Predict the 3D structure of the following.
Amino acid sequence: MSLTPCRLACIQCAYPGSISSSLELHDRLIREAAGDGASLIVLQELFYQPYVGARIEEAHFADATTLEGSVITHMKELSKELKVWLVVPFFEQAGPGIYYNSAVVLNDHAEIVLHYRKNHIPEDPGFHEKYYFSPGDLGYPVVETPWGILGVLICWDQWYPEAARILALKGAQLIVYPTAIGTLSTESADEAHEFHDAWQTIQRSHAISNGVFVAAVNRVGVESGTTFWGRSFVTGPFGNILNEAGKDEEILHTTLDVSQVESVRTTWPFFRDRRIDTYGPLLKRWAKE
């Protein structure tokens, strides 16, 4: 099947202080991205609200939504009106007292074609997600698009090569990572530089080892002492940086030719040479004898 190039837009912005103003801001930015030719638009983690993991506050649960709630309903209407695909991360309430850090992919007919719940849940200073979210229970889904096969992972998932590998083995040619990552006020400039370098390096390595395009979409601004560094970026299937945003609000446009994936995988046949008969220890928490 011949694939058309993907005109990808990654939207990074700061939380403007209220959910209503955040929804208005994203509405404007999505319309701007679509007007500039984007066919696939990816939003940042927990896009319409503050990054809840920065603090433990019970009040944040009131801002969760469902698949049938007003936030997802409005995003569906936008996708259909603008004839674009949207990756929409959100704070999902799945039942009484059951919450997930989730994302859906909406096609240009306002249909939910992929539903993902973040599998790896962090608990660190400034990232208290275990208070809010259960671990994901929907596995690692992928979806066919007009531009190739798409997989979605969320933030902390990006540090785990197993997650990216599973998506690639299921056919993914593009993996997107909606993200909220930054520097705590207690961390030095040198630490901030090291953390950012590691964050970009690990995702470039997923692109290389799996022969996939990778797009990381990070928020900006300062929230509860955390400075989100932005720097959203897109890599090619051998880890080459195709495009990178700055530290302020930005729509990062990149055109992807997904047909490059097969060429790279042929040149670097990592899948061919995998020793799947030796990987049993990966299913253990710790494999030291």
Q: What stands out?
A: The CA atoms of residues 195 and 255 lie 28 Å apart. The longest helix spans residues 189-210. The chain has one domain: 6-283. The first strand starts at residue 6 and ends at 12.
